[in-house]
Amino acid sequence: MKSNGLFITVEGGEGTGKSTLVNSLYTYLTERKERFVVKTFEPGSSTLGKEIRNILLHRKELVISGRSELFLFLADRAHHIEVLIGPALREDLIVICDRFSDSSIAYQGAARGIADLDTLEEICLFATDGLVPDLTFYLDLDPKIGLARIKGEKDRLEQEVIEFHERVREGYLELSRKHNDRIYKLDASKTPHEVFKQALTILEDKCSELL
Ligand code: TYD
Hints:
Elements: E1 6-12, H1 18-32, E2 37-41, H2 47-58, H3 66-90, E3 94-98, H4 101-111, H5 117-127, E4 135-140, H6 143-148, H7 162-178, E5 183-187, H8 192-207
Parallel strand pairs: 1-3, 1-4, 2-3, 4-5
The structure holds thymidine-5'-diphosphate.
């Protein structure tokens, strides 16, 4: 997919402050008034995606195998690209997305063990028709701290044992080492403002000509 759009994703484990960073980046880029900005998330941004999200996270009575879980996330993503991300990028907008393929690789690959990371990357590329973010911020945090931040009832994935969340973190760390020209690790134990400042420095440095 060739365009002058800019595709930014924010990744991380549970309770790492992803949506706070997405909101700060959105506000900052919108206030610059140079490019239109779209803020979105996975899973569940489309009408179809909302149904898939409900199955994946809240229908706890359903038994969902690891492989079907993976393909449900990918179905949500393929449709999200079709109806929202793809058209926005073709219109040269900036798209900021809370989670994308790296989530599937960390959660379904590293943590669930469905397949090794390279295989998972291939499967994700098929689902996204080759779309890869231009820039990804990975919010790194000890999962014990992240999980302790979650309030209210936990969804199906948040309920997983601590070892699962530790493997998610390992997966993200491996991905950020492998793709160090795209994925930037931020210290999510810092205040939201400090995390935002770290992200902004990288954004200005990497993408100033596209902003
Ligand atoms: P969500 O309520 O959106 O929470 P969060 O603030 O953590 O993003 O829940 C999404 C959950 O789905 C989260 O536990 C991560 C998981 N997930 C996957 O396992 N694979 C994926 O491909 C995606 C997009 C999310």
